[in-house]
Amino acid sequence: MRKLPPLASLRAFEAAARHLSFERAAAELGVTPTAISHQMRILEEVCGQALFRRRPRPLALTSAGEQLFPVLRNGLDGFAAAIASLQRDTEHRPLRVTTPSAFASQWLVPRLPQWQETHPSIPLEVIGTNAVLDLRAGGADVAIRYAQSMPTECVAHEIFRDSYGPVCSPALLAKGKGIRRAVDLLQYPLIHFDWLRPGPDTPNWRRWLATARLVEPDLPEATEIWDLSFREELHAIDAVIAGQGVAICSDVVVGRHLKSGALVEAHDLSLPGYGFYVVYLRDHARKQVIEAFADWIHSVI
User: Fold this and answer.
1) Which CATH number describes the domain made up of 95-161+276-299?
2) Taking the model in full, what pTM does it have?
3) N or C, which terminus of the chain has less Cβ within 10 Å?
């Protein structure tokens, strides 16, 4: 085990020896000259001999001080260089962003050219996963969480909230008799996808049909009324775009397809969804970069 003097006394000695002045050393370190003198007494007691000649003025190093100074100076310079190198590596490595898979694919990735245009020196590493990565364990630098309420474990900013309604390809509607009532949807295949943590408020076909039944009591009751089911939301969206049926989808996730006309709303009844939040650690070393990313997310909504 290394036996070292207090680091404060080593820093004070290095500054005083470099300036040959307690006053200038105190100014550099943001302390008083008296504090520097106190630290020198501590270090000299540890070393067992004087490190400075204080009389007559000006201040000068003793032979012991001249022996210690270059070793300590070079050590502190080495520490500073190593820290600066690590900081440069941190600044240039990609910002790791974790986000739900469907949001990454359908919303974030199509907008990445705008990020590259406005922040060309900050590469992104997008981790599309429905698993909740632990930011404190270093799984990612910043997360886009999808939740009913504001996450409380870190700093969080709401981006937007979504809603869910039936969507389909316009080509599919052209094959049917048209949709005026919820029951008319049953002439088409209904597409379902799994939710990782389903609950009574999950905006899926079961809940949508139950809500529609309040207006249309003659709507058939069925617990498994869908015709095509997928484990992944992205696969369900692909099937809907391909004209294979109607699905209950997030207006945020499929927003660009609705805007382009690749998908249309099949019925005007919608269910409230959840919120999308930018989440990060308050004391993260790249906080400024993360906040720039959060500001950019808000700017491209």
Assistant:
1) 3.40.190.10
2) 0.70
3) N
Question: 277 has which bridge partners?
Answer: 145, 158
Q: At what angle do helices 7-19 and 33-47 cross, to 10 degrees?
A: 110
- CA–CA separation, 259 and 300 (whole Å): 15
Rg (C-alpha) for the chain, rounded Å, is 32
pLDDT tens, residue by residue, 98-140 = 999 999 999 999 999 999 999 999 999 999 999 889 998 888 9
Q: Higher pLDDT residue, 138 or 142?
A: 142
Do the strands 95-99 and 155-168 form a parallel or antiparallel pair, or are they unpaired? Answer: unpaired
The DSSP annotation for the chain comes to ------HHHHHHHHHHHHHT-HHHHHHHHTS-HHHHHHHHHHHHHHHTS-SEE-SSSSPEE-HHHHHHHHHHHHHHHHHHHHHHHHHHHHHHSPEEEEE-HHHIIIIIHHHHHHHHHH-TT--EEEEE-SS---TTTTS-SEEEEEESS---SSEEEEEEEEEEEEEE-HHHHHHSS--SSGGGGGGSPEEEE--SS--TT--SHHHHHHHHHTT-TTSPP-SS--SEEESSHHHHHHHHHTTS-EEEEETTTTHHHHHHTSSEES-S--EEEEEEEEEE-TT-TTHHHHHHHHHHHHHT-
Considering the four listed CATH numbers 1.10.8.50, 3.40.470.10, 1.10.10.60, 3.40.190.10, the one that applies to the domain covering 162-272 is 3.40.190.10
